[in-house]
Design brief:
There is one protein chain. The chain contains eleven helices and 19 strands. The longest helix has 17 residues, at 252-268. The two termini are 23 Å apart. The strands form five sheets. It has a six-stranded mixed beta sheet, sandwiched between helices. Strands 13-12-11-17-18 form a five-stranded mixed beta sheet, sandwiched between helices. By secondary structure, the chain is α+β, with helices and mostly antiparallel strands. It has three domains: 8-135 and 316-342, ATPase, nucleotide binding domain (Nucleotidyltransferase, domain 5, 2-Layer Sandwich); 143-179 and 255-312, Nucleotidyltransferase, domain 5 (2-Layer Sandwich), CATH 3.30.420.40; 181-252, Actin, Chain A, domain 4 (Alpha-Beta Complex), CATH 3.90.640.
Length: 343
């Protein structure tokens, strides 16, 4: 009997990697961070352990994110990171290598797409398939996109926001902007430096976003959070307090970019499908959708109901797994609506 490894779906995100294994569900959630010894090129840590090293490493060790704004920034490191995660979920125990489905942003170049597929093959895939993130997010959220009716999904990840209107199993119109949770963090760090002369790291900015961030301050609980960093003027440690409203002010630019891309897709949506959206609403997925008030903001700006998916962070990974179950029932052509494959 052939000993085939189970199919694997991977949400290869800027901030985190989620791995779905057929028959087991999501078995791995780890930050997409790799710690490397610059002198030898040796991988010292991957995932959660490497994330703890961000901003705290000696000169010869660098903790880096090999995925930038939804695409591969460092091919070799990405391939090693994938190899590590594939081995960690137990796929190496089998005689035959697994089929792997990896998500990609809605608007990537051919070079960027080939880099993702090639990295999966070199990391140990028997076959590598790619699926666009909003399509995977819709599948993972349980949306029925097979009917001749419009559905809209907004996937706000760590590096990109992907927006798409779907019908008859495919994407009718879509757009992607390189704005996500990381841009919110960067905006908060810039605000702290501009307003308080305080230099903070990305982890501190992220913690502030999670604790006091909001996209809709009128519905947010008023609170202040104390943060610590280094004073730019004196070079000494310093602590300041930021309120919910101040954090909201800090992230106005990336918030507006998300709203603009949603409006852009709506403006290009055929009238019949746009009418469907008024009844069905907009589904929000991705970690960035968990920012307090994001659904309220998009509802107010578009005048269309917006709701969070049941498990926004897991939707894309679950969607890659669901797409894998459809491979045997779909034509294996490079122009298939659902996926593309490389042997």
């Amino acid at each position: 009997m052939f000993n085939f490894a189970p199919d694997i779906g991977i949400d290869l995100g800027t901030a985190s990697v989620l791995v779905y294994v057929k028959g087991r569900g999501i078995v791995l959630r780890e930050p997409s961070v790799v710690a490397i010894n610059k002198d030898t090129g040796q991988i010292l840590a991957v995932g959660t352990e490497a994330r703890r090293m961000l901003g705290r490493t000696p000169g010869n060790i660098v903790a880096m994110r090999p995925i930038k704004e939804g695409v591969i920034a460092d091919f070799d490191v990405t391939e090693k990171m994938l190899r590590y995660f594939i081995a960690k979920v137990g796929a190496r125990r089998y005689l035959f290598r697994p089929r792997i489905m990896i998500c990609i942003p809605a608007e990537v170049t051919g070079v960027e797409e080939r880099a993702v597929r090639q990295a999966a093959i070199q990391a140990g895939a028997r076959q590598a398939h790619v699926i666009e993130e909003p399509l995977a997010a819709a599948l993972g959220a349980g949306m029925d996109i097979s009917q001749a009716s419009g559905s809209m999904v907004v996937d706000i990840g760590g590096g990109t926001t992907d927006v798409a209107v779907l019908s008859l199993g495919g994407i009718v119109c879509a757009s992607s902007v390189k704005v996500g949770g990381d841009k919110f963090d960067e905006a908060i760090a810039r605000y702290a430096r501009r307003e308080f002369n305080l230099l903070i790291g990305e982890r501190t900015a992220e913690e502030l976003k999670l604790e006091a961030g909001t996209a809709y301050p009128r519905r947010a609980e008023a609170r202040s959070i104390s943060i610590r960093g280094r004073d730019v003027m004196t070079g000494l440690p310093k602590a300041v307090e930021l309120s919910t409203v101040q954090v909201w002010e800090a992230i106005q630019e990336p918030l507006q970019a998300v709203v603009d891309v949603v409006k852009d897709v709506l403006e290009r949506t055929p009238a019949e499908l746009a009418a469907d959206l008024v009844d069905k609403g907009i589904i929000l997925t991705g970690g960035g959708a968990l920012l307090h008030g994001m659904d309220l903001l998009i509802s107010q700006e578009t005048r269309i109901p917006a709701v969070l998916a049941d498990d926004p962070i897991s939707c894309v990974a679950l969607g890659t797994g669901r797409a894998l179950t459809m491979l045997n029932y779909l034509p294996q052509s490079s122009n298939n609506k659902l996926f593309r494959r490389v042997m």
